[in-house]
Each structure stands twice: as C-alpha cells, then as structure tokens.
Amino acid sequence: MRTPIIAGNWKMNMNPEQTAEFVKAVKDKLPASTKVEAVIAAPAVDLPALLENAKGSELKVAAENSYFEDEGAFTGETSPKVLKEMGVDYVIIGHSERRDYFHETDEDINKKAHAIFKNGLLPIICCGESLETREAGKAEEWVEGQVTAALKGLSAEQVSSLVIAYEPIWAIGTGKTASSDQAEEICAVVRKTVAKLYDQTVADKVRIQYGGSVKPANVKELMAKENIDGGLVGGASLVPDSYLQLVNYKD
Ligand SMILES: O=C[C@H](O)COP(=O)(O)O
What we know:
The chain has 251 residues and is α/β, with parallel strands linked by helices. It has helices at residues 16-26, 47-54, 80-86, 96-101, 106-118, 131-135, 139-151, 156-161, 180-197, 200-205, 219-223, 240-247; strands spanning 5-9, 37-42, 60-63, 90-93, 122-127, 163-166, 207-211, 230-233. The protein starts with a strand and ends with a helix. The relative contact order is 0.16. The chain has a single domain (5-247), classed as TIM Barrel. It contains 12 helices and 8 strands. The chain has an 8-stranded parallel beta barrel, surrounded by 5 helices. Helices cover 42% and strands 15% of the residues.
C-alpha cells in the first residue's frame, strides 16, 4: 500500500551542467512513480536545471532545505513559497548535517514542516542518533523525541502524507551501514511513535526511509524490511548508473 520512495540527496555537490547531464542520463529509465517514487534532492542553485530537464519524466524533485517564512529579510534563505511556484515536490528538513553544522533545532524543524505544508509541498523529515547516543542505549528514546517534536501541531492528514527518514549519524558517508535489522528496529520505533501521537491508520500510511551508506548492494535487503519504505541516499545517488540501480531495485 505504501509506495516506496527512493530519494537521492546530492548535498553540496553538482552544478547546473552536471545536473542537466545527470537527468538526461536517467530520465527515460526511471520506474513508474506508482511503483517506486524516484526523487532527487538538489542544492537550490541546481533546482531550475533539475526541474527543466525532469519535465515530463517520472522524476520528482526535492529541495534540501527551506526556511519557515515565505518571504522577507532573511538573507541567504530559501522560500518554501517560491519552491512551490517553481514546481518542487518535496523538501528535506532536519538533516543531521543541518542540525549539527547549522544548529537547527527541533523547533526550527517543526516550524519548517508547517511552512512546507502551508505551501502545498511535502516534507521529508530526518531523524537519527549519534554513535554516542546509540552506545548509551538511548537511540530509541532519542528518535522518538525528534519525531514527536517535528510533528507537533500537524494534522493526521498531513502526517499521513509525509516522509520520515531515519538516518543514524554514524552511518552517514562512513561506509558503515546500519544492519538491516538495526535499521528496521528504529524505523519500527518511528512508526510506533506516529501511532502513539495519532493512530495506527496514520502510522500505516506514513512512509519511512532509511539513510546511511545505502548503495545498490544493500538496497534490496533494506527494502525487504516491513517498516522501511524507502532510502535517502547520499554518495550513491551522484552517479546515474548507481542511482538507476537504486530506484529500479525491484527489477
Ligand atoms: O541524506 C543522505 C544521507 O546523509 C546518507 O548519505 P550517504 O548515503 O552518503 O551515507
């Protein structure tokens, strides 16, 4: 019932020319979006090239971040209203890199989620624990806290349509993938948290991605887990061939 969603998160890589080349290489080889939703999240400077080249294809487009106001004196920020006008579908919020390097708080992330919905976009909300938190046996509690804070004040309908990405910080860009059992364990905690805050019907609808060194070699095993509905992929999404293997993991 839940359509799988594989999203590449390019982070601060790629320029508009590389973006255009990438999309040209993948656009005719993507799965139908009813089978697997294929998404690319690109830096704001690449979004026009991404949108232009993805036109008429199955590719969905995400921004890597947006602000919680639509307009005003917020130098350097990206308006969710303008992202919607441009044709963007999703916005990633709360990535651990934004939380760690740019000091984004749970409150900021919640405000961004509200602004994203207000503008008719969908958020991909990231959560995940550090190695220290995991080793202290507090991963579940940590993730439950992040999810609870991020969803504050959102309606059941809104939560049913969004995506939550569980990304253990210790597995990001390190080559260390959480085992499929470890990933499943916390993705199940995410779903249980949604059930506790809303109800089981909402929890059954929300799509949960795993992120952290996902690659063609491990995508099938991860996607076979009951509570994993997709992947948020960094490094392995930068090369067309590898991206295509990920989104076509069902073939
Ligand atoms: O958003 C993506 C994640 O941070 C994972 O990155 P990675 O696949 O390079 O480990």
